[in-house]
Write a structure and sequence with these properties.
This protein has a domain at about 10-160: Oligopeptidase f, N-terminal domain (Butyryl-CoA Dehydrogenase, subunit A, domain 3, Up-down Bundle), CATH 1.20.140. The protein has 29 helices and seven strands. It has helices at about 20-40, 50-80, 85-105, 105-115, 115-125, 125-130, 135-140, 150-160, 165-175, 190-195, 200-215, 220-240, 245-250, 255-270, 275-285, 310-325, 325-335, 375-390, 395-400, 405, 410-425, 430-445, 445-465, 470-485, 505, 515-530, 535-545, 555, 570-585; strands at about 180, 185, 290, 340, 355, 365, 490. The strands form three sheets. It has a three-stranded mixed sheet, sandwiched between helices. A two-stranded antiparallel sheet has the order 1-2. It has a two-stranded parallel ribbon with strand order 3-7. It is globular and about 75 Å long. It starts with 20 loop residues before the first helix and ends with a helix.
Amino acid sequence: MSKNKLPAWDLSEIFKNYKDPKIDNEQNKLNKNVNTFVKKWKGKIKNLDGNDVSNCLKEYEKINEKLGFMSTHSSLSFASNMEDEEVSRYNSKISDWIAQIFSKIVFVSLEIASVSDKVFNNWAKNKNSEKWLPLIKSLRKRRKYQLSPLVEEILIEKYATGRSAWTRLFDETSAGLRFPYKKQLLTEAEILSKLSDKSSVNRKIAGKSLSKVLSSNKKVFGMILNVISRDKYIEDYKRGFKSSLSSRNLDNDVEDEVVNSLVNAVDEQMPNLTHRYYKWKAKQFKKKKLDWWDRNAPFPQNSEDNIKWDHARNIILDSFYEFNPKVSEIADKFFKNNWIDAEVRTGKASGAFAHPSVPSHHPYILLNYQGKVRDVMTLAHELGHGVHQVLAGKQGLLLSETPLTLAETASVFGEMLVFRNLLNESTKKRRKEMLANKIEDMLNTVARQIGFHQFEYKFHTARQNGELTPDEISEIWMDTQKHAVGPYVNLDENYRSLWAYIPHFVHTPFYVYAYAFGDCLVNALWAEYQKSDKKEFSKLYLALLASGGSKDHKELLKPFGLSIQKKNFWHNGLSSITSMIDELETL
């Protein structure tokens, strides 16, 4: 790859393309393996000893590993080019097939969850099955929310034509949108980037264009949200969850009261966070209020240059190396082996993500890199995920997945490492810009995401009484976001439709609080890092990441002397943001 050329991943290392005959061969092999597996184990788990249940789970893990490998190719092919109808059809075909397979093997989780305490205690004493106890305990927590095996099978098979289909419609619709900008037609990623352009005129044009196109498509996006919400409500209600949020919390392995405590803490602190910061920023622009398209605007005196790809790579790897050489070594593999797709392309998914793939393969990172400091931070964020996924992979597929609440830890910590190094090397003028940028990122991660969470909560609650019109959705959006950003940002009529482009509302309802959770947790970890032996801390930190999903948050945070259940935990995490605002105001 030539110097500073943006990398693109090469999925041919899995299959040549969606026409590769190996795909059908792999499907046929797996179909046979699954049929053999079902005959061998279905209906028998409650009578297994520790050795046999361990063997069953090993075989189950291998099947899931192969399914995950197939899914990696189809889903990333789709993310690379959402406008190619054949690729989209291929992704849908694989999704349908995987749903069929899962419906056949769902008995494993259902039967394990339903075993008697006597059987469970015997498994807990066995050396072979002891390894699987975290998974078994997690499944047993779901026992009271399970439906009959037949209903569970139907739900899995219908997922591809239900919620998954609406998610696909959202993705394809979003990828196909074009936003007029001067004499150009921009993709969503490109128009969103213009909201941090140096020119206030350009930002205004971009903001109004974003609003106009989303507004003209609000019926489609409103229909998608309504269907997703109703689908989720029906399933949650039938399972016996007291709220739609409770089912997400169970998936995240966190208690309802902990999440409520986080949301309340951020909500109470909004005046000291966003309200205070945007008042300060408006003064920098010699305004009483910021227009919403200026919320992430660079400062008038901003000296930011375009950061070349190779320079971004060096900044991140050096920062990671200083913390722990192993973190840098793992991150470097993403660059050396083209596990990153970084260029902005028509039809490509907007935003950024790290896809874990499966432990026998390697993760992939997608982003839309345009050379800004925020892009460097996004790269650091996703590489943090990537490092986490590589380390946790050693647990094996079934024990490697980390709950969302802890999944953001490595990513946000990676950002912090890069930010602090850049800050330490900055002049006073540059330091002010860096601090402001970091505060904005933290506010976007904490306050804005909790604002998004409050929108979701009110929308899903209202949806229980009937379908909401796009205008009714917009009313909830404006009400919640006005409090989240505060009185010094002008949210005019053009802001009403911006709920329509947020992918998490569709892909994973109630995901967004995990960002605030992760940021506050990292702030607490960072405070410990500053007062601890650096080498010892980094060893404990890598052990936390390598644990994957084999431990809950209480066990993982115990070595650091932290507990998210302590009364002031979230307020302490938020205080690091307010202290940065203090520092900024003194500059």
